[in-house]
Input
Amino acid sequence: MTAVELTRFKAARRDDLLAARPAMLADFAADRKGFRSARLVQLANDEWLDIVEWETSEDYAASSAKGPNLPGIAAFFAAIDSLVVAEEGVLSPFA
Output
């Protein structure tokens, strides 16, 4: 089943965050086994929700263990002020 990473964070530097996003996605596609897609949602009060789909829960765990190992990923993470919550779920077959 498809694993879903839900990460809510604060980032006041909107322009920096959005400028770093394409390189982060390219690095994920090149370096993260099982990466399927990612959607970024802007919420109120400088909060954001990143919804990332992985082929398996193991792929998500392996990605998390790598951290910001490439420049595009590091630049995106650097634009984040603080983590609010990170959760993992499974995509419903009835989505």
